[in-house]
Each structure stands twice: as C-alpha cells, then as structure tokens.
Design goal:
alpha/beta, 17% strand, 5 helices, five-stranded parallel β-sheet
Length: 162
C-alpha cells in the first residue's frame, strides 16, 4: 500500500491540474474512509468504489464518508444481483459486465434493477458494456438504447470513460 505522504502528493498534483477530471477508483474502501479526513479534496477529483457482488455493498458506506465532490459506484464486473442499493450521497452509477476469456455472464435483470433504482432517485446511470469475450458484438445497449448519463457537475467537462 502506498504511504499517506505519497497519496497526499498525488492529491496535490490532481488539485493543481484542475483543468482535468480525475476518476479515482478503489476496492479498498475502508482505507479510503480512514485517509479521507487528511486528504485535500478538490472538485476535479471524483472518487469511486467497485462493488461487484452484494457482499461488497459495505464499500458504498465507506465512500459516502469521504470528502469527494463527486462520489460514484463502479458496479463492474457485475457478478450477482445487488438487490436494493442505498444511493444516498452517490452522484453516479456505472454498470458493466466482465470481459475477456472466461468472463462470467451478467444477467439483464440485475442491470435493469440498478437502472430502475437510479431512475427512481434521478441518479445518473451509465451502462458501460455487457462484457463477454466478444464485448464489441454485444455492445452496450440496454432495452434498445444506450445509457450515457453523467453527474450534473460534469455538464461542462469532457470526460472519457474507458
């Protein structure tokens, strides 16, 4: 694990490069919550946690405790039904399937359930991909359309998802 001083230096560089948006993603949500109070957060640093299975939903609570201006969930690779999500103080939800050889399948019902929760709460929903070995063939449509919603604070910024 990188030491605190190194992480603070990275945050300093991101703060200085405020013409960029930095999407920082972690699976180490508990450490994130621990370090958050001593980090100097800026508007251009978006913080996210990966939640691939329902037994990792606790990471969302850790994310909520951070000082990030934009908090997002990366629900990829989505490997099971996450059920009801507490989206309080969450600004953006990204969903995607696993890709590459041996990719585990993602069920459309899981994706729809998340999308519907986002729609009910007026949360931006971004559907990244179905996944699979030939992910380009399956592309990224859900129920006949693409979902490219972004957080409202991103309206005047160009952010690449990749």
């Amino acid at each position: 694990m990188p030491p605190l001083g190194f992480i603070q230096e990275v945050f300093k560089v991101m703060r200085q490069a405020n013409h960029h948006v930095f999407q920082v993603l972690t699976k180490r949500a508990e450490r994130l919550a621990e370090l958050s109070p001593v980090l100097n957060w800026s508007e251009n640093v978006w913080m996210g946690v990966t939640v691939e299975r329902s037994d990792y939903k606790r990471r969302i609570d850790s994310l909520r405790m951070t000082g990030a201006a934009v908090k997002f969930l990366s629900l990829e690779p989505l490997l099971d039904d996450l059920g009801e999500l507490n989206l309080t103080s969450i600004d953006w939800v990204i969903v995607g399937g696993e890709s590459g050889p041996g990719a585990r399948p993602m069920q459309a019902e899981w994706v729809r359930a998340i999308r519907d929760q986002c729609l009910q709460r007026h949360e931006p929903f971004f559907f990244k991909q179905w996944g699979g070995f030939h992910k380009k063939k399956a592309w990224r449509t859900l129920d006949g359309r693409t979902w490219d919603q972004m957080p409202p604070r991103a309206a005047d910024r160009s952010v690449a998802i990749g």
